[in-house]
Amino acid sequence: MGRLQSGFRIIAVHCFLVLVLSFFLLDGSLGVNLEGRYLLKMKGNLTDSFNLLSSWDSNDPTPCSWRGVYCSPGDHYSPPAVTSLNLGSLNLSGSLSPSVCKLGSLAFLDLSFNKLSGNLPAEIGSCSNLQSLKLNNNQFDGQATHRIGQAPVSADPELLQQQVLGTAP
């Protein structure tokens, strides 16, 4: 009976070690976190003619080392969070993805001096922590000012000036 218990313990320890090692190996292979996936989705809507967002790598654990992405420091209880996105003057074209407002800690968003066009996503009105929004010198349509008016941000109207379709009220 003693050998049976001893054998069972050895098997249990081996199973436990395999499980722990699998977790650590798998953890490193999952790729970027959820915020990084939101940013990659946003990048998918953009044309980056000069490849300035080449550092945006889906294999990184977080997007915090990517160009234009700034994060709060993480700790044992919470991972780093994207707080600022500075993509101004990068000659980006395309449209803004609604996924940008899924970045729950995003406080600063600068997309100025690009060639972004189309509608601003309705979700821009629900960016709850957004404090600064710079969209000037883009080509968003007339719905832009309505959407921005819904956002909890007190943006300077000059920062919202549109190159093609007028200015924000």
From TrEMBL:
The species this protein belongs to is Trapa incisa
Q: Name one Pfam family in it.
A: LRR_1
User: Where is it located?
Assistant: Membrane
Please give an example of a GO cellular component term from this record.
membrane
Q: What is its main location?
A: membrane
Database matches in SUPFAM superfamilies: L domain-like
Matches recorded under InterPro entries = Leu-rich_rpt (IPR001611), LRR_dom_sf (IPR032675), LRR_N_plant-typ (IPR013210)
* Keyword line: Leucine-rich repeat, Membrane, Receptor, Repeat, Signal, Transmembrane, Transmembrane helix
Question: What does the record say about its membrane topology?
Answer: Single-pass membrane protein
Domain of life (superkingdom): Eukaryota
The protein depicted here goes by the name Leucine-rich repeat-containing N-terminal plant-type domain-containing protein
Q: Where in the numbering of this chain does the Leucine-rich repeat-containing N-terminal plant-type domain appear?
A: 33-72
Q: What is the lineage of its organism?
A: Eukaryota, Viridiplantae, Streptophyta, Embryophyta, Tracheophyta
Q: Where is the signal peptide?
A: 1-31
